[in-house]
Amino acid sequence: TLAAPGKQMDFSTPQGRIFAQLSAIFDEWYAADISRRQKDSAAYRKSQGKIAGAIPPGTQRNLEGFLEPSPEGAWWMPDGRFVAGTPNKAPDLGALWRSYYEAAKRALELYAENKHGWDVLAYHLYIEGWPFKTREGGPRPMGRDDVRRIVRNWPEYGGLVLETASKKRHPHDFNLDEVHFSEDHAVMPISLLRAVSRVHYDRAQHPKDHGVHRDVRVYALNGMTYCAHCERLAAQQDNPKLRTRLQGRVGRYAHPAGAVCGCTNKSVLAHEYEAEFGRLVKLLTIHPDALPLMTELALHADQLRHPSADTPDPEVEKREAIALCKRKIEAAINLYGDGRITREEYLRRVEYNEREITHWESRTSESEKTALELAMCMDAVDKLSKLWDLGDAEDKQGMARSLFSYVVFDLDTRRIVDFRLKPWADRFLTLRSAILGPNASIEAGDLGSMTGSEPMSRDMHPEGYETISRDSLFRIVERVLVAFYHNRPLPQKPASSLIPEKQSRNLEIVQRFLAGERAVDLAQEFGISVRRVNRLVRRYQRREGSV
Question: What is the mean pLDDT of residues 84-92?
Answer without folding.
Answer: 88
